[in-house]
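To the team - pyridoxal-5'-phosphate complex, inputs and output below.
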Amino acid sequence: MSTTRRGFSYTKTRAIFVSYYRDGTWDSGRLQEDDHITISAFSTAIHYGQQAFEGLKAYRRKDGAINLFRYMDNGRRLMDSCERMVMPPVPLQLFDHAVKTTVLANEQYIPPYGTGESLYIRPLVIGLGPVLGAMPAKEYMFMVMVSPVGPYFEGGLKPVRMMATSYDRAAPHGTGKAKCGGNYGGSFLPQKEARANGCAEALFLDPATHTYIDEAGAANFFAISDKNEYVTPISSSILDSITQRSLKTLAQHKLGMTIVERPIKLDEIGTFTEAGACGTAAVITPIGEVLIGDKIIKIGPEGVGPISQRLYNLLLGIQVGDIADEFDWITIIKQE
Ligand SMILES: *Cc1c(COP(=O)(O)O)cnc(C)c1O
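Output:
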């Protein structure tokens, strides 16, 4: 156990990776020790939100080796987000090189096995300038930064209360499927209101009708039914979570559950035996209660549901190398 408890806050590491897109091509990139960048004050990223990012982790295994989890899925999703924001997609080869190079350059910052801590990896693509009008940039920057982060829940999973919000994070045919910064700036206010109402997070509904559950701020939603079903929402405005994909695979192949993808009505939330939010940061955040208007709806019995706990143990076990990688999700980038 480390002596200081680490949350999800930034610690400067040795180096960041920087590559530029100019004259129609991405350069091969380089590491730089300074974690500041100099860009035009007229960059499209800061005026018009032309940017996209990713979030993934590197883990230290019991034997000291370092591994990544499904990281090329993040590379492909970043390409999709770039297309949506009319930015030149970062080639998978460059993404692969940048992630590995940055993690290995910062190896001393990867927390030890058994602490629950890991190295968070943040790839980022931004439109540069100078550009005055609202139009795509000609030049771009791709960066990869890392920071050690702590476990989201210290001392195990704990169910939270979420607040069904009347704000939308994305429009019905907007940018909800892209991991672009604009979706998050707009979610800070609903998040602030949720916290002011005693809730951990805002739960967003489908923006067209406000009838169905979309997702939480930066995590997908799932529910467990009493028919041994793992239920996830269908919606055009949610981000395709890699954690969610992995949990579906585990629910189906390791727990023998049926995967059901369908619109989930907010007013059926109380009929589920378990519910949760899932994403890279926390893996699973169990949802014990939802505040809807002035009513608190309880989900299942008190405490963490057994299926959520088993899924969490399975996925985290695979991510840190304690459970066999039978789905080919792990890439070891350095042997001990
Ligand atoms: C990043 C993110 C998620 C989680 O995706 P993972 O790939 O599982 O980390 C879910 N929803 C939103 C809105 C996100 O930005």
